[in-house]
Backbone:
């Protein structure tokens, strides 16, 4: 063949199917540029994390207790991704975190928090602390579909004794929207809310009985976050939950489904096990309409076992996270770039999406994971230092930090996560992770858009507008790249400067 007709670089098949058996990480690879004939605005990052769940932003938060609770899940869902609430807690605690997400942005809120006139100010203050909002309807018996008699907000209870009854301080005869013929359009209700300049608008029937509620905040969010990940039926923000394969998982599962969890992640360091398969089968038999993401895995053989038993999505990565020591301690795992390529190549035949979990330390790694066949990435350390992550900020040597720990660390095992590693009470605890610190990154509201815009630049540079096109090029071998030497890796980063500043990674 004429050398000038050959494509530059190597196909990923050529790189990964090498005779020497070498496996590669993200930094070992670089992709070659393509032809740009479109603007950044034409790029669509829509992807799937399971057979039925689609995201506008291909980012999933890791189910770690220093990464994802309700604040993380809310903001990530507003931005088009999804958060996975960790299970290193009690059933009640995990359910409460899901409830907070579900009540955040609802359109029509059909199950609002309601009080009766005989409730006290203390009851309202307690609810404000739990649910993080400050306005509530009051009905005759404290239930939905009962006659609306008033509204209560934080302004009504300021400076009042906690034992005062709500009937003595509530706003009576609030502005309402009456249903017509048993129906109401959200657009019409929103217009009423705008005109009355109230923060909340109760929806009542002809008898004055409360049917639902809409909030001014929801209108703002619909405009500010057009990519938000919402349940198509309820219009609520979507949220995932993690469960283990031990002890209380059935009770935990039932409760989480009841409060509205949209996707289940079976959280295990090694997903190819009888324990996970048994759990997977139970979920699919009991809740066939709920998607289940399984893992973690790194081989096509592992993927085959989980897919054949009903897995709707796969979580790929073992021992590659910044605080994970499985490869070091156990000598088992696989470099992440190779793992993603091999598992995704197999899983695509069954239409099962792959989530790249671990080893991602910058936006370039996100792009590489997607280019190698992943449909989304799961982030831990990159999210742990944000305002929304569960831990508090503190200062050390003048640097603003947050705590970050692996679920296989001894610190995390002291609570609940030892179950994840099949540890019984009498066995020595071998840590497969560490506890550490990460620097502050500010709010996800600014950080995630930065990452996404960087990924879009990657898409444009290789000449693709959407993920399906990227994966087509991957498998037809028109997406090309090279392996990098150690010197090439240095060359591709910041070098030969006295110092430099970097706002984001």
Residues:
């Amino acid at each position: 063949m004429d050398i000038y007709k050959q494509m530059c670089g190597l196909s990923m098949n050529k790189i990964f199917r090498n005779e020497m058996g070498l496996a590669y990480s993200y930094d070992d690879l670089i992709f070659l540029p393509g032809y740009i004939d479109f603007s950044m605005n034409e790029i669509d990052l829509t992807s799937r994390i399971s057979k039925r769940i689609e995201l506008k932003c291909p980012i999933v938060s890791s189910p770690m207790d220093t990464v994802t609770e309700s604040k993380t899940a809310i903001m990530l869902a507003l931005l088009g991704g999804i958060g996975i609430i960790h299970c290193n807690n009690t059933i009640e605690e995990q359910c409460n975190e899901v409830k907070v997400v579900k009540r955040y942005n609802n359109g029509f809120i059909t199950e609002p928090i309601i009080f009766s006139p005989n409730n006290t100010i203390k009851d309202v203050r307690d609810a404000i602390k739990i649910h993080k909002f400050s306005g509530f309807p009051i009905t005759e018996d404290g239930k939905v579909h009962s006659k609306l008699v008033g509204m209560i907000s934080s302004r009504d209870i300021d400076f009042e004794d906690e034992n005062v009854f709500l009937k003595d301080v509530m706003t009576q005869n609030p502005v309402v929207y009456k249903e017509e013929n048993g129906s109401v359009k959200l657009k019409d209700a929103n217009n009423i809310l705008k005109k009355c300049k109230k923060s909340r608008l109760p929806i009542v029937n002809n008898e004055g009985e409360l049917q639902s509620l809409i909030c001014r905040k929801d209108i703002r969010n619909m405009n500010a976050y057009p990519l938000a990940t919402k349940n198509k039926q309820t219009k609520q923000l979507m949220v995932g939950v993690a469960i283990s394969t031990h002890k209380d998982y059935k009770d935990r599962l039932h409760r989480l489904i009841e409060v509205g969890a949209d996707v289940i992640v079976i959280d295990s360091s090694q997903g190819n096990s009888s324990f996970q398969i048994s759990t997977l089968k139970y979920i699919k038999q009991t809740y066939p309409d709920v998607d289940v993401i399984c893992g973690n895995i790194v081989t096509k053989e592992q993927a085959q076992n989980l897919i054949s038993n009903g897995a709707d999505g796969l979580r790929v990565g073992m021992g590659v996270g910044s605080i994970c020591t499985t490869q070091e301690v156990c000598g088992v795992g696989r470099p992440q770039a190779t793992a993603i390529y091999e598992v995704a190549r197999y899983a695509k035949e069954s239409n099962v999406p792959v989530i790249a979990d671990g080893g991602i330390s910058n936006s370039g790694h996100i792009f590489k994971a997607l280019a190698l066949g992943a449909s989304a990435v799961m982030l831990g350390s990159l999210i742990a230092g944000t305002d929304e992550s569960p831990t508090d900020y503190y200062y050390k040597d003048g640097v603003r930090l947050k705590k970050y720990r692996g679920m296989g660390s001894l610190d995390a095992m002291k609570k609940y996560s030892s179950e994840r590693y099949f540890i019984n009470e009498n066995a020595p605890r071998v840590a497969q992770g560490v506890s550490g610190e990460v620097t502050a990154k500010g709010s996800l509201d600014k950080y995630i858009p930065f990452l996404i815009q960087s990924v879009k630049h990657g898409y444009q540079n290789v000449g693709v507008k959407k993920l399906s096109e990227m994966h087509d090029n991957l498998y037809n071998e028109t997406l090309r790249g090279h392996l990098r030497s150690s010197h090439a890796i240095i060359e591709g980063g910041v070098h030969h400067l006295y110092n430099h500043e970097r706002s984001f990674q």
